[in-house]
Amino acid sequence: MRILIISNQHAEDGAIGNPVLQRMIASLRKDNRVSEVNFAHFGRGSIAVSLRHIAAEARQHDLIHVHFGGLYALLVWTALLWAKSPKLITFHGTDIHAKAIKTASSVAEKIKIRLNQWASFICIMLYDRHGYVASELQGYLPQRLRKWRQARAFVQPLGVDYSLFTPRSQKEARERLHIDDGKWALFSDVSQTKVKRRDIAERIVGLMPTGWKLLVMSGVRPTDVPDYICASDLLLLTSDEEGSPNIIRECLALNRRVYSVDVGDARQQLQGLRNSEIISREPEEAARQITASLEKDYNDNTRDTLRERIDLELISRHLVDFYQEVRAGQQ
Fold first, then answer.
1. Summary count for the chain: helices (H), strands (E)
2. CA 156 to CA 93: how far, in whole Å?
3. Does 160 score more than 90 pLDDT?
4. In terms of Cα–Cα distance, which of 194, 254, 258, 193 is closest to 219?
5. What does pTM read for this prediction?
6. Cα–Cα distance between 10 and 67 in angstroms, integer?
7. What does the H/E/C string look like for 131-171?
């Protein structure tokens, strides 16, 4: 099977940015049922050049999978009209819920966010199958649209590269990052956006027992993320909006405690765990919850107990199973 992945978001090898698609493609290539996986980056060159390239590539593949919705995905669909292969799209969060509109700094930005959301809704009607990185995202669809296209929907969970996210000692990780000893709460703010609510995280840490500090991870290479996780004692997530935060899975793959507000699919990811939990958005109550939880000895061993649902290689196998079902249903 020849697969074409298309997106307007992609980080080059070793570059700062979102590496989700890179890792997904690499994992798919390991499956012996897949003969070829190629990537088409919308946005390299002019729109016309991008669309011509995508149209040419699409005719050479057995299945086409677009990632992230919005106006760009609508344009891409027009380039796929002459491709006979199944056309899938997966939404990752903001492209569907559009909550970023609350913190938009201008009217023009708010209009852009809303247009991208509406374009995503139209894509649901046009693409053969539409997926979500978290089932909770379906709740943001207009009710009639959701019911009409429910049979064509799927959930595509994201995963963690276990070969990259391997455990290392806290001492080693701190030496590599040149941070001192102490109690560190990790806060991931890669894109430095207001919706991550660093202000809440700082207040929570300030209310915890003496010695706790916030370790902010921002603008780092994807390969450095495991060091940040291993150097910390816990993850603190206080965002106003999320889809399916991969940082939670990455921390669980490295046996780190996770304390998150109820956002995206965080509650689902932490369900049944003893050493991680959903916390209040009120800093005083959140600090109390975390402090009480830390009194329990760590025994979740989430790297092993949750491997079936967070290991990218295992998830990719299920995705190829799904690809084969889609192709069989269209033949």
1. 15, 11
2. 12
3. yes
4. 193
5. 0.88
6. 10
7. EECCHHHHHHCCHHHHHHHHHHEEECCCCECCCCCCCCCHH
